[in-house]
Amino acid sequence: MSVEKSAESILKENSDLFEGIGELEGYHHIELNKSINPVIHPPRRVPVALQERLKSEIERMEKLGIVEKKREHIILRRQEEITAKLAGAKYLSKLDASSGFWNIKLDDESSNLCMFNTPFGRFKFLRLPFGIKSASKVFHKAVCKILEGFNGVESFIDNILEWGCTKEEHDKILKEVLEQIRTANLKLRRDKYKIGISEVTYFGHRYKREGLKIDDNKVKAITEMKSPTSKKELERFLGMVTYIAKFVPKFSSNTAVLRDLLKKDVLFQ
């Protein structure tokens, strides 16, 4: 037997050494500099075209035991990301959760913290009440978990947006989404749903087959605002007009003089 064939035979007998990922004995402990406070970095923006590849790689690493999914921080899609994902969408649908927060039950300890008095007696909430500071985040996270893994779906608190490039694709995703919602026992508003339409307002923006458009209601609200008479009112005005920034040429330079009025050493007049 030649040296080459002998080596190949040895490698074949030990083929298991060339599969998977190893796991050496013991654990490594990372020493932290206690003078430095830990930080949480927001997720880096990933081009839509690469998101599936990234997701596949993370899922592969999960299966190999390299990473483990922990408690998620609430991630809201940027408007630009949603617009990019909607490219080519011809059919749009919008669903609204019914009595959003009340879909979530409270444990006994939390329920006892949510009591209120009335002339008719003392009551406590058994469901997540409106007005709790964390309620929006809690419910948004719950809906995101329900819709996790779906393509052609976005959610923001109690609003769910679904789309497809063809009627067949749209209807298939819609049926799967509704079935998942039924399994999770989430309820929807019958008076608010819009199915298979070509234009929808979502998260304060108008999405159409042709692309992103200005929401007329937002523009009307801006044009009907009174002229600011204080820095606080100016901040509110700039916050409103920033919505249309992407539609206005030279927006930054045109509003520079207004932003300068917000500086501490500048007198508002």
Question: How is this structure best described in words?
Answer:
The protein is an alpha+beta fold and about 270 residues long. The protein folds into three domains: about 1-20 and about 45-70, no CATH class; about 70-215, Alpha-Beta Plaits, CATH 3.30.70; about 215-269, no CATH class. Helix content is about 35%, strand content about 15%. The chain has helices spanning about 5-15, 50-65, 80-85, 110-115, 135-145, 165-185, 215-225, 230-240, 250-255, 255-260; strands at about 90-95, 115-120, 120-125, 155, 160-165, 195, 200, 205-210, 210-215. The strands form three sheets. It has a four-stranded antiparallel sheet with strand order 4-5-1-6. A three-stranded antiparallel sheet has the order 7-8-9, with no helix packed on it. Strand 7 (about 200) and strand 8 form a beta hairpin.
Please name the CATH architecture of the largest domain.
Answer: 2-Layer Sandwich
The name of the CATH topology of the largest domain is: Alpha-Beta Plaits
What's the alpha carbon Rg, rounded to whole Å?
26 Å
Count the beta strands: 9
SSE-based structural type: alpha+beta
Q: What is the first-to-last residue Cα distance?
A: 96 Å
Taking pLDDT < 50 over at least 5 consecutive residues as the criterion, the unreliable ranges are none
Shape call:
extended
Average pLDDT for all residues: 79
Secondary-structure element sequence? HHHEHEEHEEHEEEEHHHH
Number of helices: 10
CATH superfamily of the largest domain: Reverse transcriptase/Diguanylate cyclase domain
